[in-house]
């Protein structure tokens, strides 16, 4: 008999394309995941995917189980929401702010999906450019903040969404374009294009330049990612952005993406929530939806509990 846990495992394999990352995604050891797949294959009497294939290839039987998962899992989630509503968890407020200024690529479809499933919940959001969202969250003025820069606030819980790598976008003609990575000293000689926020809220400063005691030669600010890319492509400077934010421009060949440091600069994106609202049904569902949409739409991210050298 096929169980719900089997469907979740096969979906994680499909979305990650890797046994290691699928195990991280559903919080199992690789050994436990392999045992679960073997158990299912023995029950069904057939293999579900081709071992050691890159990218991962599912057999016809595996594709049929995935089709079942695509049909069943949304119905299961919908039933859970209905039960939560019957239990009295449907009314609430979700006012949020965004400190991650490249988040709209995955956040907007998350919000659209959430609104369809929870029409009773009052939603609103604001940009985090011109005020301090986390203290506002602690005061009760906001209900959720998307941030990569947690602050020690006793009333706030930080729920990790996913890990991502910060890349340096440079013009195709830039000398860095031929390098595998850049050092702090090399970056300090450049004009750095940044969002108009405090420097300590930007990973390229707080985790790369500042610990080395360095400053860029000059800075220039732009509010929109596309404006930053235009400036970079025209040789006006370089900028550091999450890998998913520059993926489209890299694929089209507008700019080149270079690692920051030999091991790369990795960060975790969090949903900051007040502890007194963390257990509400609609908040839990928003977090699940955000993670599902992120891994479905973004490339190069990793499960938040997977340790990557920084």
Helix and strand topology:
Elements: H1 4-16, H2 19-25, H3 30-44, E1 49-50, E2 57-58, H4 60-86, E3 93-98, H5 104-117, E4 122-127, H6 133-139, E5 144-147, E6 156-170, E7 181-182, H7 184-187, E8 191-194, H8 203-209, E9 218-221, H9 225-233, E10 239-242, H10 243-251, E11 256-260, E12 265-274, H11 281-297
Parallel strand pairs: 3-4, 3-5, 7-11, 8-9
Antiparallel strand pairs: 1-2, 5-12, 6-10, 6-11, 6-12
Helix pairs in contact: 1-2, 1-4, 2-3, 5-11
List key phrases describing it.
single chain, 310 residues, alpha/beta, Arc Repressor Mutant, subunit A, D-Maltodextrin-Binding Protein, domain 2, eight-stranded mixed sheet, two-stranded antiparallel ribbon, 11 helices, 12 strands, globular, disordered C terminus, repressor, amino-acid biosynthesis
Concise structural overview:
One of its GO terms (cellular component) is cytoplasm. This protein has 310 residues and is of the alpha/beta class.
What can you see in these coordinates?
Residues 2-59 form the HTH lysR-type domain. Its main location: cytoplasm. There is one protein chain. The chain is α/β, with parallel strands linked by helices and 310 residues long. It folds into 3 domains: 4-86, Arc Repressor Mutant, subunit A (Orthogonal Bundle), CATH 1.10.10.10; 93-161 and 271-297, Periplasmic binding protein-like II (D-Maltodextrin-Binding Protein, domain 2), CATH 3.40.190.10; 163-266, Periplasmic binding protein-like II (D-Maltodextrin-Binding Protein, domain 2). The chain has 11 helices and 12 strands. Strand 1 (49-50) and strand 2 form a beta hairpin. Helix 1 (4-16) crosses helix 2, helix 1 (4-16) crosses helix 4 (60-86) and helix 5 (104-117) packs across helix 11. The longest helix is centred in the first third of the chain and has 27 residues, at 60-86. Mean pLDDT is 87; it is low at 306-310.
């Amino acid at each position: 008999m096929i169980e719900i846990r089997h469907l979740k495992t096969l979906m994680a394999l499909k979305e990650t394309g890797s046994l290691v990352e699928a195990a991280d995604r559903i919080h199992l050891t690789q050994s436990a995941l392999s045992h679960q797949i073997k158990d299912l294959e023995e029950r069904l009497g057939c293999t579900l995917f081709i071992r050691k294939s890159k990218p991962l290839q599912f057999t016809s039987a595996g594709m049929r189980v995935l089709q079942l998962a695509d049909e069943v899992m949304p119905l299961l989630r919908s039933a859970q929401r209905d039960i939560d509503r019957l239990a009295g968890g449907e009314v609430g407020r979700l006012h949020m702010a965004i400190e991650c200024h490249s988040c709209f690529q995955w956040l907007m479809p998350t919000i659209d999906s959430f609104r369809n499933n929870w029409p009773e919940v009052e939603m609103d959001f604001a940009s985090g450019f011109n005020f301090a969202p986390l203290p506002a969250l602690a005061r009760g003025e906001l209900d959720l903040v998307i941030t990569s820069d947690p602050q020690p606030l006793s009333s706030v819980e930080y729920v990790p969404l996913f890990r991502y790598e910060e890349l340096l976008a440079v013009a195709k003609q830039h000398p860095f374009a031929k390098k595998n990575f850049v050092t702090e000293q090399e970056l300090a000689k450049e004009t750095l294009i940044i969002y108009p926020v405090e420097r300590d809220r930007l990973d390229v400063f707080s985790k790369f330049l500042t610990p080395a005691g360095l400053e860029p030669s000059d800075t220039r600010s732009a509010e929109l990612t596309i404006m930053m890319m235009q400036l970079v492509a025209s040789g006006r400077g370089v900028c550091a952005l999450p890998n998913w934010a520059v993926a489209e421009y890299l694929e089209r060949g507008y700019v080149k993406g270079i690692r920051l440091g030999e091991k790369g600069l990795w960060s975790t994106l969090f949903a900051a929530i007040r502890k007194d609202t963390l257990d509400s049904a609609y908040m839990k569902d928003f977090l699940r939806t955000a993670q599902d949409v992120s891994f479905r739409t973004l490339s190069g991210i990793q499960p938040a509990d997977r340790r990557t050298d920084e």
